[in-house]
Amino acid sequence: MMNKAEFTIKDINFLSRSFQQSRIFLTAFELGIFTVLGDAEKTSGQIASEIDADPRATDRLLNALCVTGAVQKVNDRFRNSNAVKQYLVEGKPDYQAGMMHSVNLWNSWSNLTMTVKSGSAVNQNTVEERDEKWFKPFIAAMHNRAFAEAPSLVGHIDLTNVKKVLDVGGGSGAYSMAFARAGENIMATVFDLPNVITMTAQYVKDAGLETKVNTMPGDFNTDELPKGYDLVFLSAIIHMNSPEQNISLIRKAGRALNKGGRVVISDFIMDDDRLTPSFGAFFALNMLVNTKSGDTYTESEIKAWFEQAGIAFVERIETPSTGLIIGRKE
Question: Domains plus CATH for the chain?
Fold first, then answer.
């Protein structure tokens, strides 16, 4: 069980005000200030003109950014910190386009109080109803995380006799690409919503893996999954669904598998007290404010879904960022 040993007035003050620095940073990103600065030094007036904003307000925002360390001020001119130059300037190789997803999350998290009272997301469109303005930064954010983690995570999975992988809700295809690279004879298919698949195809093309990774449009909660696969991969999927939806999805995964094939779930696997891993406790609230019935789930819950879906539990594997739960079609 993980509980903070002592909660002090310092903690109270920090938590009550920590949103301010986050909002300062996200507003600067949303306004394009870091990109406008690039590698240059500029006055607040110059920056205000380029982002079409009020000069005084822009100056005060920039001063606050200096306090956070994101920006530096020398002789009334502002410049990006080295990390900001590398990661937050559009056009740079390491640009984190997915940061805009955090801006979108701010809006949904602002509804947390009403969401807790009602028990479900307030005034939120379903994933299927969201437009490109939401999807592009979301997929970019997921790709940035997955692309870095995928090779190591896939390395934890026994790929003996695996030739066909179905990546359900695979987004950018980062994990499918890792599977394809892990074995000469492995082919992967990304199954995701039509408005996501168009982006997936571009990511795959940019990686030069069109011959090993293909795409298929569909909704995993309403459509049947294609059949004939040796491994069905569900990464960051179950936390978007209700338990009932997950049981249905695992049953579909079972029907998609060849005999002896495996279902691999990659997600935040909570301990029974739901306090650890700590990030998962926060992420459960992220699902609360952003989905109708999403949550983080425990190992025992997932094992029960396997049993109801006719999938035999094989093992749990811990990875640096998430856990893997593996089941086999008997």
Answer: 9-90 (1.10.10.10), 114-329 (3.40.50.150)
**pLDDT tens track for 6-54:** 899 999 999 999 999 999 999 999 999 999 999 999 999 999 999 999 9
CB 140 within 8 A of CB 199: no
Q: Nearest-5° angle of CA 22, CA 291, CA 281? A: 60
Give the CA angle between residues 188, 320, 298 to the nearest 5°: 85
Contacts of 250 (CB under 8 A, 6+ apart): 263, 305, 306, 308, 309, 311, 327
Contact 186, 162 (CB under 8 A): yes
Sign of the C-alpha dihedral computed for residues 239, 141, 66 and 49 taken in this order? negative
Polymer length in residues for the chain: 330
Q: What is the pLDDT of residues 285-308, one digit of tens each?
A: 999 998 899 999 999 999 999 999
Q: Is the dihedral of CA 37, 136, 98, 94 positive or negative?
A: negative
**Residue 277: is the preceding peptide bond cis (ω within 30°)?**
yes
Cβ contacts of 292 within 8 Å, gap of 6 or more: 120, 121, 124, 126, 242
**C-alpha distance from residue 101 to each of 16, 135, 140 (Å):** 23, 9, 8
User: 3-class DSSP state for residue 258?
Assistant: strand
How far apart CA 17 and CA 198 sit, in angstroms, is 41
